[in-house]
Amino acid sequence: MVSAIVLLNVERDKVNTVAEKLADMTGISEVYSVAGRYDLVAIIRVRENEQLADIITNHMLKIEGIIKSETLIAFRVFSRHDLESLFSIGMEE
User: Fold this and answer.
1) Mean pLDDT for the stretch of residues 81-86
2) What distances in angstroms separate CA 49 from CA 4, 26, 55, one per listed residue?
3) How far apart are CA 63 and CA 81, in angstroms?
4) What is the 3-state secondary structure (H, E, C) of 41-52?
5) pTM for the whole thing?
6) For residue range 56-80, what is the model confidence (pLDDT) as tens digits?
7) 3-state DSSP call for residue 93?
8) In whole angstroms, what is the distance from residue 58 CA to residue 76 CA?
9) Mean pLDDT lowest among 7-21, 35-49, 75-89
10) Which of 44, 50, 66, 86 has CB 3.0 to 4.6 Å from 4, enough for a Cys bridge?
């Protein structure tokens, strides 16, 4: 599984609209409205890098209102929860 955190700056009056559109996208598991330097944080969990690239470049960044983004690709997860098994349900080959 490939996981990425996408930090987004969004036009002030479009934060909720952008968040809702992102949350409806396949591969985006959560969208957080946050305080600080960024307006939204999107968590992406997909099976392959190609899916990640497609979501970000062909879908996510075409949403009107997104001004700037920064994508962080996760190498390893440190968690008390086994997120890999939770998000891989139904993805067996």
Assistant:
1) 60
2) 10, 14, 10
3) 32
4) EEEEEECCHHHH
5) 0.82
6) 999 998 999 999 999 999 998 887 6
7) coil
8) 26
9) 75-89
10) 44
DSSP character at residue 63: S
Amino acid letter, residue 80: R
What structural domains does the chain harbor? Answer: 2-87 (3.30.70.920)
Cα torsion angle, 39, 45, 50, 55, sign: negative
Determine the Cα–Cα distance for residues 55 and 42; give it in Å rounded to an integer.
Answer: 11
Residue 33 neighbours by CB distance under 10 Å: 13
Which residue, chain included where needed, has tokens 């307006």?
A: 39
Looking at the chain, how many residues does it have? 93
Q: Identify the bridge partners of residue 46 per DSSP, sorted by sequence position.
A: 2
Q: Rounded to an integer, what distance in angstroms lies between the CA atom of residue 13 and that of residue 16?
A: 8
CA–CA dist 54, 49 (Å, integer):
9
CA nearest neighbour of 66 among 30, 34, 32, 19: 19
Q: How many other C-beta atoms lie within 10 A of the C-beta of residue 43?
A: 16
